[in-house]
Amino acid sequence: MAEAGIASRRECERLIESGAVEVNGQVVTTLPVFVDPKVDRICVDGQPIRKERQRLLYILLNKPARTLTTLADEPGADRRTVIDLVDHPQKGRLFPVGRLDYDTTGLLLLTNDGELAHRLTHPRYGVPKTYRAVVKGYIEDEAVAELERGIYLADRKEGKTTGASRTAHVEVRIISRQRDRTTLELTLREGRNRQVRRLLAAVGYPVRKLERIAMGPLSLKGVARGRWRELDRHEVRALKRAAAAESDRTRKPKPKASPPPPRTADEDKR
Hints:
Elements: H1 9-17, E1 21-23, E2 26-27, E3 42-44, E4 47-48, E5 58-63, E6 95-96, E7 105-111, H2 114-121, E8 129-136, H3 141-149, E9 152-157, E10 160-166, E11 171-177, E12 181-188, H4 195-202, E13 207-215, E14 218-219, E15 228-230, H5 233-250, H6 265-269
Parallel strand pairs: 7-13
Antiparallel strand pairs: 1-2, 1-3, 3-4, 5-7, 5-15, 6-7, 8-12, 8-13, 9-10, 11-12, 13-14
């Protein structure tokens, strides 16, 4: 499903569990589901998945505020979505990689490459995302140190709190500090829901403005707010290399086997 451009791997899993997917006319809701795309008929929301190979697209959008990071708003609502901003003939095949809050601005990638979307969003691969935040107040060094060490945040699944866990290391760079506000950049390698806002609120500095300025090797340079462009082949290759490199970085090396103890003279005589 991800390779067919339906959605990211995580979203495809949610679609299966919600009962939106049929295989040969039978609804499947339990993972994993093993199919042969050449033989089996797979439908999502009643629509069959196209079996022909499609062109992979990579769109960099500079998301404005008051815009939903989704393909369509809830029934009855009429809010602008990120896909409304992309005037591309094949935009119907695109889906956003990760999410930015309604009022958060900045770099958002849209693609139909499910494998790359999975690597860019899964914490295992640790692809860095950098945010620039303006917070209320003069942030103290102790609060910065606490952010870098990690903070316990509630874990939620399907709208319910399932416990709490400590956030991974965050890189923090202070841009400016004034009596009534501070501008800083935070680089994260995991992506919890509203993580930047929750982190800063936890140390007593609520966010006034938040923008994502980088994802791996990508930046917003040359893309005005509300505008978009396709990535060129060099940028796509760099993005894929970054995802692969981060995966190698987070993979623990296997311990080397200990050499056997030296044989004694008595053992040599046996």
